Amino acid sequence: MAHKHTSRGRGHWLLPRLVLAAALLLPLAGCDTDGILEVEDPDVTLPAALFDPANLPALRATVVGDFAVAFGGSSATGTPGTVHASGLLADEFWHSGTFGQNREMDRRQIAITNSLVQNMTRNLHRSRRSAMLGLASYAQNQPNTAAHAEMVNYEGYIYVFLAENFCSGVPFSEEVDGRFEYGQGEPTENIFNRAIASFDQALQIANAAGTGAPAVAQQRLATMGRARVLMDLNRYAEAAALVRDIPTTWSYDVQYSDNTGRQNNGVWGNNHGRREIAMSSREGGNGVEFRKGTATTQNTAVNVDPRVPWSFRNGAADTRSVHHFQLKYPTQNAPIQLASGIQARLIEAEAALARGQSDAYLPILNALRGTINLPALADPGTPAARVDQFFEERALWLYATANRLSDLRRLVRQYGRNTEAVFPTGVYFRPGLDGPRQDGVYGTDVNFPITFDEQNNPQFQQCIDRNA
User: Could you state, in order of their start, the residue ranges of all structural domains in the chain?
Assistant: First the structure.
């Protein structure tokens, strides 16, 4: 039996506004006209409203909606989420449209003025702020509930996305006692430790919430979040021990909707709706072959890997490129997996891999492949080939879930690979209608910079470093 948990929200809806009844329809004679002008701003949600228990459903919907946009993006003005942007900088997507900002990400040459990266950054910090308000309100009104744990888990995952995908030195500005305090840039390890603290807190709350399905879902989400961070910190054995009780069939899905553009799955929106990004394959010489199989006729591909289905058409947004559709998210309301039992098994397999010194990872990979009727893999025989094999399998299982960029960085940082042997490199080609067409050369970025917005922060200079 499959174990699924879905996180639903209506998107970014303002909490109920506090508006005084206007006296403008009353006769002015005999009135204090100065008093008429002394009204509360109807566009400001006061702190008391945030902590009103009657507003918890609306507050939760805001938190869930903000997180969905930060993670998967939306169709609204091509807003990129972490999945879209990190996939472009890695090897999951091509730039197939007219937005130069997508081209910068795809070519690994990202300016600090890149407006799409600015939007992504703002959405991540907006989501973090929403989650912090949510957890504070639940702590006061409905403590030790599954929804309370959910708020803290989302906070933890936002820290993960910022640490995994951005340069070292992300600043965190806070509101303290009603005052805005600018934050200094923090080393990546500090941000991972922030995430661990959030996941530990979420697990404690979820355990107190009991053994019902919502509480168990948050327990597993916190466990998977902590294990993911441990992998980022090169603590494989600890991570593997942590996830051993996660069922392979379990998943935690972030939900999207066709109600509004903001609520759409942003990967679908930019790949299918706007056709600004296309499914990549063997990008820049080092990329994984995501588009396995054969393109037979327009819009059709056969013998594809079931983990990464695709199709194509002539004519991307730029009108000059062949456009490849990913079919993992074929509709506006397709969910995106945030954590899963498959990811748990991959963590166990990587711990067993022992950096290529053992073939003990293969039974785990082959058990996963057997669940979708793929043939078993054979031991390639050398440490380097085993690492290659494992990370290709991981890339195929976790395609377009905001894991790949972090994996490429880990290959450099933890496995000692050269950056240009891991990331797309060399001449930058795009899949033109008449064959590949050159469009410059790849740069050297392996993460996202802190964007121009932060220049207003007197405590911040720039990235501590741009290393993997």
Answer: 46-298+410-468, 343-397
Q: Distance between CA 123 and CA 67 in Å, rounded? A: 8
- 3 state SS of 468: coil
For residues 97 and 321, the answer to whether their CB atoms sit within 8 Å is no
- Tokens, residue 210: 């009991």
> Coil, strand, or helix at residue 450?
coil
Q: Which helix (H) or strand (E) holds 103?
A: helix 100-106
Q: How far apart are CA 125 and CA 313, in angstroms?
A: 36
CATH architecture of 46-298+410-468: Alpha Horseshoe (1.25)
Q: How many C-beta atoms lie closer than 10 Å to residue 360's C-beta? A: 13
With residue 387 as reference, give the H or E element that holds it: helix 383-397
* pLDDT tens over the chain, length 468 residues: 456 676 654 444 334 332 223 332 333 333 443 333 344 444 445 667 888 999 999 999 999 999 999 999 998 877 899 999 999 999 999 999 988 999 999 999 999 999 999 999 999 999 999 999 999 999 999 999 999 999 999 999 999 999 999 999 999 998 877 788 999 999 999 999 999 999 999 999 999 999 999 999 999 999 999 999 999 999 999 999 999 999 999 999 999 999 999 999 999 999 999 999 999 999 999 999 999 998 877 677 888 999 999 998 888 888 888 899 999 999 999 999 999 999 999 999 999 999 999 999 999 999 999 999 999 999 999 999 999 999 999 999 999 999 999 999 999 999 999 999 999 999 998 877 667 777 899 999 999 999 999 989 999 989 999 999
- End-to-end CA distance of the chain, in Å? 39
User: Is residue 325 a contact partner of residue 312, using CB atoms and an 8 Å limit?
Assistant: yes
Please tell me the pTM assigned to this model. 0.90
Total residues belonging to the chain: 468
